[in-house]
Fold this sequence. Notes:
Blueprint: H1 3-8, E1 15-18, E2 23-27, E3 41-42, E4 64-66, E5 78-83, E6 89-90, E7 98-103, H2 111-126, E8 130-134, H3 140-143, E9 146-148, H4 174-184, E10 188-193, H5 195-211, E11 216-221, H6 237-256, E12 261-267, H7 274-283, E13 288-290, H8 304-315, E14 317-323, H9 352-367, E15 373-377, H10 380-385, H11 390-408, E16 414-419, E17 422-427, H12 428-432, H13 443-452, H14 460-468, E18 483-487, E19 492-496
Parallel strand pairs: 2-5, 7-8, 7-10, 10-11, 11-16, 12-14, 12-15, 13-14
Antiparallel strand pairs: 1-2, 3-6, 4-5, 5-17, 8-9, 16-17, 18-19
Helix pairs in contact: 2-11, 4-5, 6-7
Amino acid sequence: MDSNSTLKNSNTKPKVVYGTAGYILEDVPHLSDYIPDLPTYHNPLQDNPAYSVVKQYFVHVDDSVPQKIVVHKDSERGVHFRRAGPRQRVYFESDDVQAAIVTCGGLCPGLNTVIRELVCGLHHMYGVKKVLGIDGGYRGFYARNTKTLTPKSVNDIHKRGGTILGTSRGGHDTNKIVDSIQDRGINQVYIIGGDGTQRGASAIFEEVRRRGLKVAVVGIPKTIDNDIPVIDKSFGFDTAVEEAQRAINAAHVEAESVENGIGVVKLMGRYSGFIAMYATLASRDVDCCLIPESPFYLGGPGGLFEYIEKTLKENGHMVIVIAEGAGQELLSESMQSGNKQDASGNKLLQDVGLWISQKIKDHFAKEKTLAITLKYIDPTYMIRAVPSNASDNVYCTLLAQSAVHGAMAGYTGYTSGLVNGRQTYIPFYRITERQNHVVITDRMWARLLSSTNQPSFLGAKDDNEDKKGGEPLDQLQDGHCSDVTLVNKEINYTLRTAC
Length: 499
């Protein structure tokens, strides 16, 4: 199921509110939209000692957060999202809440922290005592046992990597899941996962709405690759970048300890090279960063082999960072996995790190220009499995508490996310409409090229092709939507830049 089909089959039209000066609020659904005459209740936070020091307990009903904050003096106000936070009236009585939490997809630092803060937020802020953990991802709703979660049982889980609930890919059967939700008396569902998981959450919300159930369906975006759109970043990303430094440092030590040493590090990034880019910028030891969004070629003038030889002659060693999705087009047809996919619908990729390491060895063995020593490091599963760092722990707390506030206030069909430094509620369709990519016509990529001094691997032919498309490659973007077509000797590549 893709986001377009989800929208076409949706029972609900996007809630959009228009105001003056070009103001647009992309609002999120509310239980009262399809269940009339819902009673409201006194918010327990008014009596919570923790909130007694807060000057303004509750978020104003009209508070919103702009998606774009860099504007000109004559710019329209543009798209906004509803600001997250506690509301004065709630739509659930604490004793009636039966919440469920599920984690789906691959592992990511911070999963246990989000689970902990959802449980503790529900309990300590709103007095909710009944919280279930769904074991083993989406299929756990109808094929596995549940776990009772209490503040005591989750007290120390943030110190561990992985997820105490277990996870899986696939297994999404909307009717079976909603049947289980209905049978168990669950009325708040917190779904932690990436874009595919959020599409599943959207389908669950639509079915819940169709049945007229008083069930709040809330998503918390999780992807270590940071490829979910709209939000500033996903939790676990800072930890992944920090942990990647260890691998890069090891590669650097290995490379500089021998003559003509090359260290190759493969990092996560199936379709988006954010981890590789930020780890490279943070490290300062990387000489070349290769990501899916930026095509490269191996041989010939301006190619990777030429740059490696030049760097080795100048410095005597070199470190290359490559994202797992980079260069897949260059792998020979015999190595391609075809159209095979995993249970989440992701294309199965070949190990580009091993492939490019062998290509580099073969090239220098054949050319006999330099005798190299190459070390390859793949820290992928080590990075995924570590606990979240301090920055991500704080972020996970904000995401979880914001999700709880929204569900108690009757909002549903939304993802809790950070936009321009503010917690917001974002409708599912905005989260699932596309993937976030590194924009190689943006200043951040230019900063990386300046830091590593690597070539852009775009030749004269590429510049000419791009000029035909009307979008010069040397024009740095600030996130505007455009189609940039990049063509080199071995790749035809079209990039939809981020909005």
